[in-house]
Amino acid sequence: MSFLEWRRFNFFDINHNADSRKISQTIGSSKISTTSSGNGHLVICDDDGLVHLITRSFQVTTFRAYQLNVLISTQLQYSSFLITIGKDEPDTNAILKVWDLERRDRQSNPICVRSTKLPKSEKLTTLCAAENRLLMAVGFVDGCIVLYKGDLSRDRNSKPKMLKELDQEITGMGFKSVNKDQWYLFVSTASSVQQFNVSSKDSCPMTVLDAVGCDFKCSVLVNGPDSHFMIAKEDAIYCYTVDSRGPCYVVGGQKMILQWFRSYLIIVSKDKEKSSNTITVSTTTKNLDEIESVSITVLDIQNKFIVFTTTIREILSVLPEWGSLYVLTSRGNLSQLIEKDLQSKLTVLFKKNLYDVAVRMAKCQQFDSQALIDIFRQYGDHLYAKGDHSGAVEQYIKTIGKLEPSYVIKKFLDSQYIESLTTYLHALHKSGSANKDHTTLLFNCYSKLNSVDKLQEFIITKDENIDFDVDVAIKVCRQSSPENALALAEKHSRHSLYIKILLEDCHKYTAALDYIEKLSIEQSVQIIKQYINVFIENVPKDTVNFLKKLCTTCYTTANVDLLDHSAQPEDFIYLLLDDSECLVNFLDHFENFLNKWSTSLLNTYIEHCLIVWKNENNQERRITIEKKIINILQSVDNKICDHYQVLILAISFEFKAAIVYIFEHNKQYTKLIRYYLSLNDYTSAINCCRGYGNVEPKLWVSIFNTAMIDENFPPLMLEEILKEIERKNLLSAHFTITSLVKSKTINIGHVRAYLSSLFGAEKKTLEKEKETVDKYQKDTENIQQTIQKLKNCAVVFQGLRCSACNNQLELPSVHFMCQHSYHQHCFQAFSESDDDCPACTQNNKQIMDIIRTQGQMKDHNEVFHSQLERSTDSFSLISEYFGRCLFDNLTAAENQLAKSIFVSPELSAPKAIVPIVHTPPRLSPKLAVKTSINPFDEDDDDDDMEYDSNNPFKNDYKESKNPFKNDYDESKNPFANDP
């Protein structure tokens, strides 16, 4: 039995175009041999070797393809290539030609881009080509298949491949692409269907799909994602995939042509009986009954119904192109089947009340959701009009979300339709499109139907997919049964409503706290904040204990990153501000997590601890609270504790321990001394100076200043203060004594020890300074005497050994006024300059550097004034600057130094050492002593010296020839003691 619905629908219109006469006139008496379509052309070939190209405007272009006839042709759907097979001469193999319809020669005929003679002379039956233009196959009557691979338009020298002979006439072929590189060739014969894997390079393996075959033109390849290779038999249409046999569609009749158009299967078959719907397309036929008539049927495979059928005589081929179907008769007459638009199709279905078919068609055509809803609505209205209310509700349910619910509800407001209305409202809630009014209406429907069980099942044990306004449901149930309202609120996690019902209707405060404790932290915080006033008013102790448990979770390791969703103690402090003891008791629970507290929370805690301490009369209890506060300050992190705020609180409550701790912790010892002195606690102030005087010595000065102006200061403590000031040299003696003189409460007996020590030290210092002055005066006199000798007396150089190598001096030699003598080569090796003594250079540089440094320091006025302000003995600092000549002119001092020293004109001014060089005339023109002109040499003593032509001063110096030998006084040599 066929599962197709055999009905005739007028989905196509036949158009007998007047331009189709041109085709018949063009072809004339020639017999049409083959047809094809694609790429904007209808191709008709005749047995005279002509090819007729028909455009969309029915313009016919004819060109000769062969001299004899055209046997078969195929036009690629998405390419301009036309493939034909025909003969130019009789009794020869047919020739395959490929035409490029876009390229024309001078006569405007298509250009043949390939011409290949077939390898077999047998009669050919089928021709097919792949859309990639790389595969082509030709089938013969003897069951042989010739496969061509490569570019159809260029590869003219490729050798065709002979596939396995099937020993039966090839009736149909088609190429199927599974992926980019995988191609299959479907082949049908009169009794079988098989496929070849043509992607293989060496061989093309064959797979037999079925032992059922078809006639010529009764096979077609359907392209698309779910494509099939279809063949037509008298009993049915069979489909095949690359792997196996596919679905089967039972369609009776003797099939002549099978074609595919869009989503339709076109079947041309012979009529068994004469039809009254036969359409005559040939007016030259005299006896219509003698002419065979055939029927053309358009079958919608996906929706499983026949959309169009009619009878046309002498159908030769059906060509799909330009979005229409063209039916060609053997006489060259062409008829067009134009598909109606979708809305017209739906109108036809609506008139026949075939709404189910209309829905399937609309879904197949990817109709928008709004249009589908309209079809469902019309279908529901049709069923409602027929009295099928349950069927109408089923269709209306499909419109939920798009169609306004009131449109349906108004139809079923009558009490006799209450069950249908309940069904619709239930579906409305299930889809989540219901509002409060719909929920109320549904509950009223349950009430009118006395369906308490259904109501209970709906609100308590409902399907999880059903959704409704739970708040409205709870409100309705709360009026009649608070128990059901509580159950509904608990089931749907309406925790706030659940607590509200417990507090307002049941007055179960402890039970409400127990319920909140079971919730998550975030939910507990939200609800307890909402109803905290009620809990505090009725069960304050239980509420505080619950808050302790709730807030403790915010300090656990697991929830430390969830502080935004956790209960913070500061969130509930404002409720306990009136009871400091209760608040302190609440916060004592979190004392182990002080470092995780906020600054405001810590300040509040300390403040209320101070309040409790202030109001406490028990001394032991006060001491305990005092220790607790100090422990808090010691254990908490400095980043959390605001010491300034705590100091203000401690001063306000006169809490001495905290004040002292904060000053000591922040190293504010001066403020701590002032605080002790403000309390007249002189002993603590002295102890503070003893403890921190080494860190901050000015503490002794601060307490000394206070002692000078405070009449209540104990004079007995002054002795220790003065002793520390003197020991650390914090104040000058003059300032100290002056301050003591101005004091009205201190007499000389209180400072007798200090004065005795001061004067004794001054006496020792004076004696020491006097000895130093005497020494400097004596040294100054010696230096002045040395300078005078250098200016007025001759200097005798009598060094016999070199100061560098300690060997006997030999000429040439270099002598300095510092009594250092050198060989000339030693001097040149060790000296940094020609004017300085190598042994004295380092010392002279140090002296000059000191003088220059002093000259630079005299410009640093800020440094001098800064030292002067910090110094306790300004007179000593100024004396030091005078002693270092920092107030003198450096240039003048250097000039004075240069004048006071006898120097050679060749030497620079600062140099105090003058070298005298004994060298031959040829070595140095400066300071050299020539033997030939020596005024102290005697002529008669020349024989006492052995003359050497190479070294005139080779022999040792003759002491007897020194004219100043007896005049020189060694005691007057200022450098006699120098090394």
UniProtKB/TrEMBL annotation:
GO MF entry, a single one: protein-macromolecule adaptor activity
Region annotation (Disordered) ranges: 933-979
Keyword vocabulary terms for this entry: Coiled coil, Lysosome, Membrane, Metal-binding, Protein transport, Transport, Zinc, Zinc-finger
Keyword Zinc: yes
Recorded superkingdom: Eukaryota
Biased composition (Basic and acidic residues): 955-972
Membrane disposition: Peripheral membrane protein
GO cellular component: HOPS complex; late endosome membrane; lysosome
Domain named RING-type: residues: 802-841
InterPro entries: ARM-type_fold, CHCR_PEP5_VPS11, Clathrin_H-chain/VPS_repeat, PEP5_VPS11_N, TPR-like_helical_dom_sf, VPS11, VPS11_C, WD40_repeat_dom_sf
Family: Belongs to the VPS11 family.
Protein name from the UniProt record: Vacuolar protein sorting-associated protein 11 homolog
Gene giving rise to this polypeptide: LOC112687384
